[in-house]
Amino acid sequence: MPANVTSKTANARTPPSKPNKSKPSVDTRELGIHSYLGYLRDRLVEARDLLTESGSIFVQIGDENVHRVRSVLDEVFGSDNFVSQIAFKTTGGATGALLPGNVDHLLWFAKNTDVVKFRSVYRTKEMGGAGGSGYDLFEMEDGTRFRPKDSEEVPATARRFQLTTLMSQSVGRAKGEGAASWFPVEIGGRVFRPSMQARWKTNESGMAHLLAANRVAIQGATVRYVRYFDDFSAFPITNLWDDTQTGSGMDKVYVVQTNSKVIQRCMLMCTDPGDLVLDPTCGSGTTAYVAEQWGRRWITIDTSRVALALARQRLMGAKFPYFLLADSPEGRRKETDLSGALGAGPTNGDIRKGFVYERVQHITLKSIANNPDIRDGMTRSEIDAAIKRHAEYELLYDKPYEDRRRCGSPGRLRWRVCRRIGPLRSPARCPTTCRVARRRLIWMAVVRRSCKRF
């Protein structure tokens, strides 16, 4: 099974002159940050060996040591396998002597970026807020377009839109006169051409469809594409997560506890239901909790019996939603209602075939330009219907349909304690599940999920 490793670490600082109980235990190591980086590198090497080819690893670190840990990850995984450095908000009211910091970082590396598993995760657009800024133009039902004045009231039936570029400067495509996507466009008696360093984003046939759909508007000395707010009600997340601060997605119990929304996004981006997630720093068990909630198999490890006892208690006392399986009679009926596609063959309840997800229509310039049903003389409602018939849908992997008649629990958990003295390199003396631990660890424990909830 695919194995994705999620590693969490706290900030590592040079040890203070006096012990400070509020700081992580790594601060008291003999060589300070050097001991910590050596400790981390040993575990990253083992994590790399455990990963499947399409797997990913996430390391959480503060801004004081992110550059050091990034160098270690570059060494272990190779700089070519770096995917992204994600900054996520941890608090909304930070203070500091100089510039307050309110973000932590996730360093995302892949075992192999050529085949890494990735699923786009989306957020809902908010009018004037996240994903919804810039839609400051309106279109009336009769086709009149305008920008309202500050005190002007806009009818509720008006449609919001923005104007975006119709030209592309992408590298590797022919540009200038004679190129396939370089041609004159005539609107209202005026002729427009792209610059010699650019080209249109579509060909002449596609531009004709855009003009027929009234999706091209004049702005200054050029023409631009008309993008309505409701063309796509969501937007993809980037490497800046500003909605993850404490209070927005969880009730934080422990000081170093990671927001469950952060772990959830990492998991949804890089795994499918039934995949295996490994967390070698269990802590309070948030990774295992999120994995259980979203139908992932998991293994979590810690050197502390206290941490594992807390995680075990948290999991055993939890109730989880029961999501509709795509490979189930109920899931197939729901999928048929949503997409019209009829499933063939028997159902086996295989979680690896995923859940049934909510979806949103995504109308793009490309889908309109390639739409064969659009022609001159169509009414506004006929054009909109033709566009919707050929538009694609995006799955919302964080919104599977729930079967509210059922609820899930983690079932039986297997607790394994491994004791040994000396290096943990001998496979004959240490189980395979303990390969993440090396050299300096005297004992470790593993909590592993051993029965399916779905």
Strand order of the largest sheet: 16-3-4-2-1-17-18-24-23
User: Are there runs of 5+ residues with pLDDT below 50, and where?
Assistant: 1-26, 419-452
**Class inferred from helices and paired strands:** alpha+beta
Morphology call: globular
Rg estimate, integer Å: 27 Å
Proportion of residues in extended strands: 25-35%
C-alpha end-to-end distance: 17 Å
The number of distinct β-strands equals 24
Average of pLDDT: 82
The major beta sheet can be summarized as: 9 strands, mixed
Instruction: Tell me the helix content.
Output: 10-25%
Q: What is the helix tally?
A: 9
Describe this structure in words.
The protein is of the alpha+beta class. 21% of the residues lie in helices and 26% in strands. It has 9 helices and 24 strands. The strands form 7 sheets. It has a 9-stranded mixed β-sheet with strand order 16-3-4-2-1-17-18-24-23, with helices on both faces. A 5-stranded antiparallel β-sheet has the order 7-6-8-14-13, with no helix packed on it. Strand 6 and strand 7 form a beta hairpin. Residues 1-26 and 419-452 have low confidence and may be disordered.
